[in-house]
Amino acid sequence: MELRLDGKVALITGGSRGIGKAIAAMYAEAGAKVMITSRKADVCEAAAAEIGHGCQFVAGNVGNAEDAERVIDATMEQFGAVDILVNNAATNPYAGPMIDVDIPRWQKTLDVNMTAPLVWTQLAWHKHMKENGGVVINISSVGGLSTNPVLGVYDVTKAALIHMTKQLAPELGPGVRVNAICPGLVKTDFAKMLWEGDKGDQVAKAYPLDRLGEVEDIAGAALYLAADSGSWMTGQIMVLDGGGLVRFDSMGG
Ligand SMILES: NC(=O)c1ccc[n+]([C@@H]2O[C@H](COP(=O)([O-])OP(=O)(O)OC[C@H]3O[C@@H](n4cnc5c(N)ncnc54)[C@H](OP(=O)(O)O)[C@@H]3O)[C@@H](O)[C@H]2O)c1
């Protein structure tokens, strides 16, 4: 089975940088018509030009339902479909114990990381996928499968996204497949506080595969899930973390 997306239309939120941009580039290389979106139009424009292959962009905030509808409508107008939706954009405005989080930052994290993927999936479903089938890929995190002293709020939203993936898979089947990807630490702007200085080397040493993730590691999994290669897979979670979740734990017996 070839990892090709010829004739498919893919919409990638947070496609202007990092993991989203790598997914957009790999999809475009594989033959898809690609639409990217993020808040900053100038960054999107530069990314779309770099990706090439006719990649288009529309700026918007994923947490704003009107922006979501405008971007999905623009994708339908431009390309006539939304066959593949990658819910990739996320935020992490708070670091610290969850017990101390202020409610505005808690709510923002929920709005962008949890409610937005549902809203974007609802729109894609009603405007195209319900009648024509499709693929939804949610970018979660290994944080959604574990606990962390300072990322608890973010991790709650990523755990919810994993469960949302499992819930929507039977609801939207057989026409639409819904899967999630859980990356470990990937060296992007988003995760800078976790890898800057020598922190990244320490994390890499704790991974059995002895390195941090590259954005292409995640894009390759997203291509597998979107293409026919993933055609019997739904409601599942792909963990790409250099083996971090299965490393030997010094606290173990
Ligand atoms: N990097 C890691 O180690 C790691 C690990 C596990 C999971 N992840 C997940 O991977 C995904 C991508 O992260 P990344 O590391 O690639 O981050 P990144 O390099 O910082 O890129 C984030 C992208 O999302 C966009 N974005 C942020 N907030 C947005 C909003 N409210 N509305 C629309 N677009 C928004 C950004 O563009 P604008 O600023 O222009 O909006 C940018 O295009 C996220 O879901 C993240 O949780 C990352």
Provide the descriptors you would attach to this structure in a database record.
globular, Rossmann fold, 7-stranded parallel sheet, alpha/beta, 253 residues, binds NADP nicotinamide-adenine-dinucleotide phosphate
Please identify which CATH superfamily we are dealing with.
NAD(P)-binding Rossmann-like Domain
Largest sheet: 7 strands, parallel
Number of strands: 7
Q: Shape from CA axes?
A: globular
Total discrete domains = 1
Low-pLDDT sequence parts:
none
Rg, alpha carbons:
17 Å
Please give the order of strands in the largest beta sheet: 3-2-1-4-5-6-7
Characterize the quaternary organization of these chains: single chain
Summarize the structure.
The protein is α/β, with parallel strands linked by helices.
Structural summary, described in words:
It is a single chain. With about 250 residues, this protein is of the alpha/beta class. The protein has a single domain (about 10-180, about 215-240), classed as NAD(P)-binding Rossmann-like Domain (Rossmann fold), CATH 3.40.50. Helices cover about 45% and strands about 15% of the residues. The protein is built from 8 helices and 7 strands. The chain has helices spanning about 20-30, 40-50, 65-80, 105-130, 150-170, 190-195, 200-205, 215-225; strands spanning about 10-15, 35, 55, 85, 135-140, 175-185, 235-240. Strand 5 (about 135-140), helix 5 and strand 6 form a beta-alpha-beta unit. Helix 3 (about 65-80) packs parallel to helix 4 (about 105-130). The longest helix is centred in the middle third of the chain and has 30 residues, at about 105-130. It is globular and about 55 Å long. It starts with 8 loop residues before the first strand and ends in a 13-residue tail after the last strand. The protein binds NADP nicotinamide-adenine-dinucleotide phosphate. NADP nicotinamide-adenine-dinucleotide phosphate (NAP) binds near residues 189 and 190.
